[in-house]
Amino acid sequence: MGIEISTIRYLLISVCVTVLLYLLTISISFLHKVWWKPIHIQNLLASQGIKGPPYKFLYGNTQEMFKMVKETMTKPMENYLQSHDIFPQVKPHRHSWINIYGKNFLSWRGPEPLLCVTEPELIKEILNNKDGVYLKPETKGHVKMILGNGLSMINGEKWVQRRKLANHAFYAESLKGVVPAMITAVEVMLEKWKDHEGKEIDVYEEFRILTSEVISRTAFGSSYLEGKNMFEMLTDLVKLGSTASSNSFFKIRLPFFEKEEMMKNRELSDGYGRDYLSLLLNANKDADELKRISIQDMVDECKTMYFAGHETTASLLTWTCLLLAIHTDWQDKARKEVIGLMGEKSQILDEKCIAKLKIVNMIINESLRLYPPVLGSPRTIDRQVRLGKFTLPSDMNVGFSIIAVHHDPKICGEDVHKFKPDRFSGGTVKATNNNPMAFIPFGYGPRTCVGFQLRNDREQDCSGDDFTKILLYSFACICSLPS
C-alpha cells in the first residue's frame, strides 16, 4: 500500500513538473516574442541612428496609430482646391513620425517591427532586390481573401513562372488587336455621359465599369456585363475588408466562382486563344509538372488581375478628372492639344497619335505624383541583410512609402503640393530634381507593374502602365468634349 501511494505521488510530481516546465517554456517563448526580441531590435537599430516611437508591450504602436487615423478622419481636408497635401490626411502616423524621427524610422504593429524607408536610394536597393532577400510577406486576413496567392503576393520560382505568363499576355504586340475594343468601351461610356448633361455623374463608378470592361476583354476575352455580379461582389468584399472585421466576410459569397465557370466554357470552345486566361488554361494543362499550375492558382491570378488592375486605374482616372475640374486652365490646354491632333470631329487616334499627347501625359504623371494609386508596399526579410549603411536583423518587415517620396519638398520643390503638370515638361528626371527614384507610381525593378512594359521604348521617360497608356485615349476623348 505504501508503495502504491509513493508511486502515485511520484507520478503526480512528474506531471506537475512537466506541466510547469511546459508553461515556463511557453511563457519564455511568449516573452521573447513580445518583449526581449522587440527591445533587442529597437536597441540595435537605435545604435545605427534609426529611431522611432518606443515599443509598447504587446500593442507596439498600433493604439497611437489608430488614434491618429481616427482623429484625422473626423476632420475635413482644408484648402484642397489650392493644396493637395494629402500625406498627413491618409497616413497621419507616418507623416508625424517622419517629422519627429527622420526619413527612416522604426515602428511596431504589435510585436512585429516595421522599418519605414523614404530615402529614394534605399528604396531602389529594396526594389532591385539583387540578392532576393526582400520578399513579399505572406498574405493574411482580408487581403488573402481578396487576392489569394496571385502574382503580386508570391515569391521565388512560382513568381518567375507566372510573371512570364503575364509578360507574354500583356506585351505591347499582344494587345494591339484589342485596342479597338478598348476604344469602343470608352466611346460607349462617353455616349452615355451625353445623356447626363447638366447632371452629376459618379465618375469613379463610371471609370470602374470602364476599366473592368477593358480588363475583361484584354485579359479574359469576356465583357463587364458577363461578369457584372462578380465585379459587384468583389467591390462589396473590398468594402467589407476595409473594416477589418473578420466576421464580415461570411456575409457575402466570394466573387470568383463565375470565373471558374468561364474557364470551363473556354475549355469547351475550339482553342484557348492568346489572352491571359488562355495562357493560364494552357499552363494548367502543361505536360511538365513543374510548370503546371492548379485551378486555385488560376482563380488567384484572376482575383489579382481584376482587383489590382481595375481599382488602381479607376482611381487614377477619377483623381485626374477632379484635378482637371479644379484647374480648368490645364483642362483647356489638354483640350487644345487633343483637338489639334484629332480635329473637331474627334477622329479615332492610333498609337502614334496617343504618344504625341504630351500635355495629357504630363497631367497623368502629375496626378500619379499627387495621388499615387498605391501608397507603399511592405517586404519581409528572413536573414540578416545590409541596406545602405544599415545592418538589419532577420525576421523583420521593411516598408517604403511612395507617397512620402512623391510629396517630399526637398525633391520636388516648395510647390510640391501644387498641381503643376509642367514640372514634367522636361521628363521625370527634371521633375524629380535628377532623382528618378522619387517618382515610382508603378514600382521599380523586377516587380514593376506587369503592364509597364507597354511604355514607348523610344521615350523611356514616359511613365504609364498598359491600361493607363491605352486609356489615355479616354482622356483624349473627354478633353475634346465641351467643358
Give keywords.
two-stranded antiparallel ribbon; 6% strand; 21 helices; alpha+beta; 4-stranded mixed sheet
Q: What features would you describe in this structure?
A:
Keywords: Heme, Iron, Membrane, Metal-binding, Monooxygenase, Oxidoreductase, Transmembrane, Transmembrane helix. It comes from Papaver atlanticum. Belongs to the cytochrome P450 family. The protein is of the alpha+beta class and 483 residues long. 55% of the residues lie in helices and 6% in strands. Strands 1-2-6-3 form a four-stranded mixed beta sheet, with helices on both faces. Strands 4-5 form a two-stranded antiparallel sheet. Strand 4 and strand 5 (390-392) form a beta hairpin.
Which spans have pLDDT < 50 for at least 5 consecutive residues?
244-259, 454-467
Order of helices and strands: HHHHEEHHHHHHHHHHHHHEEEEHHHH
Number of strands: 6
Described by the principal axes of the CA atoms, the overall outline is globular
- What is the terminal separation in angstroms? 102 Å
- Largest β sheet strand count, sense and barrel closure: 4 strands, mixed
**Estimated radius of gyration:** 26 Å
Strand content: 5-15%
| Strand order across the largest sheet | 1-2-6-3
Query: What structural category do the secondary elements indicate?
Result: alpha+beta
So how many helices?
21
